């Protein structure tokens, strides 16, 4: 931020509001993931939580107004305010990741990267289930990003709920989180996770940042993309050679 | 925010980072306090969480560097980005409230106001205990603000922990929250609350935004300044005649 010295730590810009509760969840997880003894040890953040950004899924699936101009505008304003890294705690919005990266001169951490890294480091995961919006699943967000990664990432088979399960379970579950109907959301998403386990997955990725607000566990290991993005953001901010590690 | 239409809802600017976990707690409480069925119903927020702002208590008590220039700079940058209301989820920083208000052309919601309003509406509260930093208590933040309020607010007697309890209980408890030592913090602050109850208070105000992270209840009604500020912010943002109500 112009005129304010924020010490040795870089300012991190957050493109948020997609949705608002997910952004607050990311905020809390980032603070909790920071090794700090006092306020001044924490990562300085600029969070733009603008829930009026055009609906991402409606744009991808139905050709409604694109959120890209708003996302680019927010990203540039965060950069102009001094942000040295941008993050976006919304999986579906990563459909426009390349446009965002090209619009700014600072790195943008891709939400799928720390998830794929954790799966590769975990070693034994080969059939991975995805719980995300219909748009995230249809866009192949994780598979495409993994295809650019190391051999072990390219070998992951990505499984998704059946079309009926997606329409009647996952999407209404995510909408219920946004509407504050957490009991209903938990029930719908837990059912969807159990159907993925029935398909023989050996891990489940919570690939929509609304989901970990109501679902944290299943019969197989669960990877929370919000938590992993928060941890990756803190690692980036605290390590001196950070500019070399994010492309 | 310039260039982004955020619909009918005003943009709210948050001066945060004092401390970081308290800002995240305010963020969560504000989202949860919003009556919304979908993302677009939520209040757009710009949150500047800058934990490197000079220490507020050290400035008030020991004459260390003032945080006022940084606070004014952040407030002006939030206003320049389009914020129509500013809030600051940190009690101690309200020591510089008048400077902030004069530095910007938009209203700044004072954190003590919704607390005093709740006490007045509650009706039967006359001996109110304050749990806050030594600096907040020494500055008489709540008593001074109540003195500007209606007669019933002026009649409140404000009680505080003994000097020993403040030094050995409350201040180390707040520091322990900032250091992530939540078990120790809860123990220290619960003891301090019990000593206030022993003094015969009929309500306790959590007058430091770190405290509700570990303490929510006592043997008398507890008023959480973070929660009340979040609710007041949402009320302001959602009501059309808002400009008439905040001075």
TrEMBL record, chains A, B:
Keywords: Isomerase. GO terms for molecular function: isomerase activity. The keyword Zinc-finger does not apply. Signal peptide: none annotated. The keyword Isomerase applies. InterPro entries: Asp/Glu/hydantoin_racemase (IPR015942), Asp/Glu_race (IPR001920), Asp/Glu_racemase_AS_1 (IPR018187), Asp/Glu_racemase_AS_2 (IPR033134), Asp_race (IPR004380). Its EC number is 5.1.1.-. Coiled coil: none annotated. Belongs to the aspartate/glutamate racemases family. PANTHER family: ASPARTATE-GLUTAMATE RACEMASE FAMILY, GLUTAMATE RACEMASE. This is Amino acid racemase. The lineage of its organism: Bacteria, Pseudomonadati, Pseudomonadota, Betaproteobacteria, Burkholderiales.
């Amino acid at each position: 931020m112009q005129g304010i010295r924020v010490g040795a730590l870089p300012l991190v810009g957050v493109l948020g509001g997609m949705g608002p509760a997910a952004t607050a969840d990311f905020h809390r997880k980032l603070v909790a993931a920071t090794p700090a003894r006092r306020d001044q040890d924490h990562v300085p953040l600029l969070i733009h939580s603008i829930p009026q950004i055009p609906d991402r899924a409606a744009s991808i699936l139905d050709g409604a107004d694109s959120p890209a101009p708003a996302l680019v505008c927010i990203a540039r304003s965060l950069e102009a305010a001094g942000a040295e890294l941008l993050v976006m705690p919304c999986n579906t919005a990563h459909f426009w990741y390349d446009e965002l990266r090209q619009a700014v001169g600072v790195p943008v951490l891709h939400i799928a990267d720390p998830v794929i890294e954790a799966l590769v480091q975990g070693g034994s995961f080969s059939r991975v289930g995805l719980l995300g919006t219909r748009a995230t699943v249809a866009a192949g967000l994780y598979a495409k990003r993994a295809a650019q990664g190391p051999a072990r990432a390219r070998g992951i088979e990505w499984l998704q709920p059946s079309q009926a399960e997606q329409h009647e379970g996952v999407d209404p579950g995510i909408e219920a989180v946004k509407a504050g109907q957490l009991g209903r959301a938990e029930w719908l998403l837990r059912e969807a996770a159990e159907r993925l386990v029935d398909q023989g997955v050996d891990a489940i990725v919570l690939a929509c940042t609304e989901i970990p607000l109501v679902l944290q566990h299943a019969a197989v290991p669960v990877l929370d993309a919000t938590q992993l993005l928060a941890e990756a953001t803190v690692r980036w901010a605290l390590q001196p050679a950070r500019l070399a590690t994010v492309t």
